[in-house]
């Protein structure tokens, strides 16, 4: 069964309609990549799925339920932004722990999950570093860990590797795929590359 389905969705900014009658259906456990040139509406599609943008027409189904007007915070999807969007004043540990803290996760469980996640993305020992003290690739791993630690059923990735050099891009692509399969997460990955 499809985990998410966009049925004839129209969405955009004010009068500027970007998605028009857009349909897509994504099976649970798959990683689906949307490839398109700059400005074609990839980010807008992810924002629409995440709930940052109101759907003007059509329907968004999540796990068979009508989620078209469910607010962002009730969707609980993971989102990895192109620009990482880490909290600059928080260290690596605190960045990854942020969502769990907000969910009032038990302290011991929080600690276990954050450390486990940092190990999985290869950042063990980096707990106390600030984002400004890390490379682009390391920051991107923190962003990935921050999203994955919440065990989202759906992960949205917006050109997560575009700021990395070619070699690291290939490595991280494999890494993302491995984590997605290991954790059984459904993912939508947009890229122009
Ligand atoms: N906040 C916004 N307000 C108005 N128009 C926007 C906004 N963000 C994006 N757009 C327009 O929507 C179109 C699609 O943008 P976007 O989804 O960001 O493309 P992509 O991610 O594929 O590069 C572009 O024409 C862009 O100018
Ligand atoms: Mg974009």
Report the strand count: 8
Bound molecules: adenosine-5'-diphosphate, magnesium ion
- Sketch the topology as an H/E string, one letter per element: EEEHEEHEHHHEHE
Helix-strand makeup class: alpha/beta
Outline: globular
Which range does the strand content fall in? 25-35%
Notable characteristics:
193 residues; 4-stranded antiparallel sheet; 4-stranded parallel sheet; 6 helices; 36% helix; binds adenosine-5'-diphosphate
Can you walk me through this structure?
The chain has 193 residues and is of the alpha/beta class. The chain has a domain at 86-149. It is built from 6 helices and 8 strands, in the order βββαββαβαααβαβ. The protein has helices spanning 42-50, 72-75, 92-102, 107-120, 136-148, 166-183, and strands at residues 2-13, 16-27, 31-35, 55-62, 65-66, 78-80, 154-158, 186-191. The strands form 2 sheets. Strands 2-1-4-5 form a 4-stranded antiparallel sheet, with helices on one face. A 4-stranded parallel sheet has the order 3-8-7-6, with helices on both faces. The radius of gyration is 17 Å and the shape is globular. The two termini are 29 Å apart. 29% of the residues are buried. Bound molecules: adenosine-5'-diphosphate and magnesium ion (MG).
